[in-house]
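USER:
Make up one protein:

ASSISTANT:
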Amino acid sequence: MVSAAARREDALNRTLLALADPTRRRLVERVASGPVRATDLSRGLPISRPAVAKHLRVLRGAGIVTAVPQGREVLYQLAEEPDGLGEARAYLEQISRGWDHALAAFKRFAEAEDSE
């Protein structure tokens, strides 16, 4: 049985891996404006339609994008509750707080050196 912490870490890893690719980030930006067909997503990109389909599979596997059948077509949209994005946000906020504390400590040190 997989623990909740392991599931969260797996979701974080899949999300960060999916968003590490600039083409996938671009696809996420395009899908963010509303449901769109894969054909429309591929317009203007320097990659083939099959390559776009592969990127969409990665985004779906990470739970960032969902595919919604619409008659004979499939529309892609942002997932309603992308767990991985929440995990990524929490992780980045934790890292950011660490940097904030380190920078504040450095500032105090530098100011103490200046006043001596």
